[in-house]
Design a protein that fits this description.
Distance between the termini: 37 Å
Helix content: 25-40%
Number of domains: 2
Number of strands: 13
Shape: globular
CATH architecture of the largest domain: 3-Layer(aba) Sandwich
CATH superfamily of the largest domain: P-loop containing nucleotide triphosphate hydrolases
CATH class of the largest domain: Alpha Beta
Radius of gyration: 23 Å
Strand content: 25-35%
Structural class: alpha/beta
CATH topology of the largest domain: Rossmann fold
Order of helices and strands: EEEHEHEHHHEHEHEEHEEEHEH
Length: about 300
C-alpha cells in the first residue's frame, strides 16, 4: 500500500477466559477502502470490530488504528471514528435534528457548527422533511439512516458499521446501500460486518471471511469467487424419492441439499445437457453465476451456528 493503513493488525488475539474469540489474525485497511468482515455467528467478527472501535482491548498481538495504539490513545482514536452499531441507540426523547446536534456537541462543536453539520447530514440521508419529528414514528430504514448520519457528525476518518441493514426491507436496504456508496465516493473509509452476501458484493472493495476466530480467506468479492468457486452453478431439483447424486459424478462438484442439488461447473448449459444425456430428468433447472454465498458456505460449512 502506498499510504499508511488506517487499520493494521498483526497476530491479534482476543480471549474471554478460556475462550479464544479472535485467534491471531493479520489485516490491513487502506484509506478510502470499503472493507468487510464475513463469517458465521461466533466467528470473531464482533470481537474484532470492538477492538478496532477501542471499546475492547486486545489480549495480545499488535493493533494500530489511525497510526495510534488503542491502549494509549483510545480517546483520541474514538474522536476520529464514526460508529453505527448493530442496534439503533437513538434518543427517543429528541427530534431527528436534535439527535444530530446534541451528539455533535460531544465533539466540541459550537452550536452554530453543530446545527450546520446536522443540516448537511439531513440532506445527505434524505431526512430533512422529518427533521422535527421524534424518533419513535420513523420507519426502520429512516432510523438506520439517522444512525449513520449521527456516525458522520464528526467527519470521521473511519466509519465502523455493524450489520448496517439487518432487519430492513429491500427498498430500505437499497437506499442505504446508495448512501454508503456515496460515502465511498467521497473517500470515506468504511469497515463493516454483514450477513448479506449481496451486500458484501455491492459495498466491499475487499473482505475477509472469518471462521473460528481466524481469517480463512481474504480478497475482493470477485477474486474470492474466482478462487473458491467455478464460474457457474446449476441448481437441480428432482422429484421426491429420486437420488441423482451418483449419476452426476464427473460433471462437476456436487453439493446435495435437502431440497435441491447444486452442481458447480465451468459451463452451466453444457452441464445441463450432460445431465439430460445421462437420462436424469430434473423437475426444475436454474443456471446462475457463482456468488459470494457459494464461497461463504464452502469455507464455513452449512452447519447452523447459534
Amino acid at each position: 500500500m502506498s499510504e499508511q493503513p488506517l487499520i493494521r493488525a498483526r497476530g491479534l488475539v482476543k480471549r474471554f477466559g478460556d475462550f479464544t474469540a479472535v485467534d491471531g489474525i493479520d489485516l490491513e485497511v487502506a484509506p478510502g477502502e470499503a472493507f468487510g468482515f464475513l463469517g458465521p455467528n461466533g466467528a470473531g467478527k464482533s470481537s474484532t470490530m470492538r477492538m478496532i472501535g477501542c471499546v475492547s482491548m486486545p489480549t495480545s498481538g499488535e493493533l494500530r488504528i489511525l497510526g495510534m495504539d488503542p491502549a494509549r490513545d483510545g480517546a483520541r482514536i474514538r474522536g476520529r471514528l464514526g460508529v453505527c452499531p448493530q442496534l439503533d441507540n437513538l434518543d427517543p426523547d429528541l427530534s431527528v435534528r436534535e439527535n444530530l446536534t446534541t451528539y455533535a456537541r460531544y465533539f466540541g462543536m459550537s452550536r452554530a457548527r453543530a446545527r450546520a453539520r446536522a443540516e448537511e447530514l439531513l440532506d445527505f440521508v434524505q431526512l430533512r422533511d422529518r427533521a422535527a419529528s421524534r424518533v419513535e414514528p420513523l420507519s426502520g430504514g429512516m432510523k438506520r439512516r439517522l444512525t449513520i448520519a449521527r456516525a458522520m457528525v464528526n467527519d470521521p476518518d473511519l466509519v465502523l458499521l455493524d450489520e448496517p441493514t439487518t432487519g430492513l426491507d429491500p427498498q430500505a436496504r437499497h437506499l442505504l446501500w446508495e448512501r454508503l456508496f456515496r460515502l465511498r465516493q467521497r473517500g470515506t473509509t468504511l469497515v463493516l460486518t454483514t450477513h448479506y452476501m449481496d451486500e458484501a458484493e455491492q459495498l466491499c472493495d475487499r473482505l475477509v471471511v472469518m471462521d473460528g476466530g481466524r481469517i480463512v480467506a481474504e480478497g475482493s468479492p470477485r477474486s474470492l469467487i474466482g478462487t473458491y468457486c467455478t464460474p457457474e452453478v446449476v441448481e437441480l431439483r428432482f422429484p421426491d424419492g429420486v437420488d441423482p447424486a451418483g449419476g452426476l459424478e464427473g460433471i462437476g462438484r456436487v453439493d446435495p441439499l435437502p431440497d435441491r442439488v447444486l452442481l458447480y461447473t465451468g459451463d452451466g448449459d453444457a452441464a445441463v445437457a450432460e445431465v439430460h444425456r445421462r437420462g436424469l430428468v430434473p423437475s426444475s433447472v436454474l443456471v446462475r453465476r457463482s456468488s459470494l454465498e457459494d464461497v461463504f458456505l464452502k469455507l464455513t460449512g452449512r452447519t447452523l451456528v447459534d
